[in-house]
Specification:
Order of helices and strands: HHH
Shape: elongated
Radius of gyration: 21 Å
Number of helices: 3
Strand content: under 5%
Number of strands: 0
Distance between the termini: 35 Å
Structural class: mainly alpha
Length: 79
C-alpha cells in the first residue's frame, strides 16, 4: 500500500492536489534528450514478433482479418 503521508512529505504538491488546489509543476527534463532503455534492435525484434504472431491475431481477433492479423495504429500529432 502507498504511504501517502510519506509521499506528501517528500512531494508537498500532493497536499495541494488532495485539496483540489491549482498547482504549477515544471518539468525539469523538458527539452532534454532522454536515455531510453530501448534501441533500434528492440524495435525490429518487436516488429518480427508481431509478424510471427499475425496468424494467431487473425484467429483470436477476427476484426484483424482485413489486415491479415497485422496490427496498425495511426500516429496522431499531440499539441
Amino acid at each position: 500500500m502507498i504511504d501517502v503521508d510519506a509521499l506528501s512529505k517528500k512531494y508537498p504538491a500532493i497536499k495541494q492536489m488532495q485539496a483540489y488546489e491549482p498547482i504549477f509543476w515544471k518539468n525539469l527534463n523538458y527539452k532534454k534528450e532522454a536515455e531510453l532503455p530501448v534501441g533500434v534492435e528492440h524495435i525490429f525484434d518487436a516488429e518480427a514478433r508481431f509478424q510471427r504472431f499475425a496468424p494467431y491475431f487473425e484467429v483470436a481477433f477476427p476484426e484483424t482479418l482485413p489486415t491479415h492479423g497485422i496490427l496498425e495504429s495511426p500516429l496522431l500529432k499531440m499539441d
